[in-house]
Amino acid sequence: xxxxxxxxxxxxxxxxxxxxxxxxxxxxxxxxxxxxxxxxxxxxxxxxxxxxxxxxxxxxxxxxxxxxxxxxxxxxxxxxxxxxxxxxxxxxxxxxxxxxxxxxxxxxxxxxxxxxxxxxxxxxxxxxxxxxxxxxxxxxxxxxxxxxxxxxxxxxxxxxxxxxxxxxxxxxxxxxxxxxxxxxxxxxxxxxxxxxxxxxxxxxxxxxxxxxxxxxxxxxxxxxxxxxxxxxxxxxxxxxxxxxxxxxxxxxxxxxxxxxxxxxxxxxxxxxxxxxxxxxxxxxxxxxxxxxxxxxxxxxxxxxxxxxxxxxxxxxxxxxxxxxxxxxxxxxxxxxxxxxxxxxxxxxxxxxxxxxxxxxxxxxxxxxxxxxxxxxxxxxxxxxxxxxxxxxxxxxxxxxxxxxxxxxxxxxxxxxxxxxxxxxxxxxxxxxxxxxxxxxxxxxxxxxxxxxx
Length: 453
What we know:
- It comes from Sphingomonas immobilis.
- Keywords: Hydrolase, Metal-binding, Protease, Zinc.
- The protein is of the alpha/beta class.
- The chain folds into 2 domains: about 1-205 and about 365-450, 3-Layer(aba) Sandwich (Aminopeptidase), CATH 3.40.630; about 205-355, Alpha-Beta Plaits (2-Layer Sandwich).
- Helix content is about 35%, strand content about 25%.
- The protein contains 13 helices and 19 strands.
- The strands form 5 sheets. A 6-stranded mixed beta sheet has the order 1-2-6-3-7-17, with helices on both faces. A 4-stranded mixed beta sheet has the order 16-9-8-18, covered by helices on one side. Strands 12-14-10-15 form a 4-stranded antiparallel beta sheet, covered by helices on one side.
- Helix 2 runs antiparallel to helix 4 (about 130-145), helix 4 packs across helix 13 and helix 5 runs parallel beside helix 12.
- The chain is globular and about 80 Å long.
- The protein starts with 5 loop residues before the first helix and ends with a helix.
């Protein structure tokens, strides 16, 4: 675990001790709030704490608002720029977290612990540390006397991990943004030695969708079976859908990704990635990538059965059988079109389909804006010179989805570098190397300044 310190050893030294200490202190306090949807949700209290930190750091109290929504809330803090006509720079994130049961963890998930160079706790990676680093960076800019030309707005949603009502509300309020930096996306990859390998920014994400399949029958006594059986009919449809492959696709973002990321994969996967980038209809490349769970979602839409339910008694023919199909839809397709394609695949009118998606909307890719790409390249170069930078596409769904759906350009741009073996977002014993803090602040100071001028 001492390798947690290896990544910043490759970074240039940054000298913002006040901001660094504040970021870690705020992260530890933020983790201690149980900001989980449901009874006892402490997201509103966490946002109140962050507001106090922003006001103490120079934000006007009236420029930091907390809006309650159901059992949660969202925060919007505005730093007014000198040009009131300029569209704002929005820094987007969330302060809710996925549920964590203390009995399953080695340490209590809501008791922050710094040990062997790591910050442990629910939200250490997703994404309380990143959020508090951003806040500390803004306060540092104020401390330095910086004056932005355009408004800088930091917006933290309160239910990104669940129904995303606050995410939608924020995007509607801030859809006039010049650019949105989603600090819950993108980031750097470390080798297991701790050496920085590459950095990706996210310019698109797949659309999340849930479709419910239902078959109903009259039922009857199990001793008198009929040809039509709801469970059998549904099962047959699910097998067809499971065997089906959507047409592989490639957009400009992912073409660049495959060419660049191939350098860090094993030879077989690397060759398939390059071949697919050259020709997305290459059958051998498709077979290789589709067989790899870490790659199949990058080459097109995927749909998989996640829930089934059927029957009502051990000695009765089923009157009803249902299943949930979860899809991650490639940018450029509407859920209705994918559902219609699944209906054609099932090829059984007895199987009815219903879109039961909550908290998701289709959104296209953000353009590869030179101002954003240039600012990210400059910022990362200050702390990790020479580390390759290229775009990527997320499997969805983040707050960027709502901004893109509303017409605002949004980009995942987190500066956190992490090893694959340390990636425990949504899982047990979540942790992040605290040595990320110093270079991340230098990165944010550069990025926020360049994009708010």
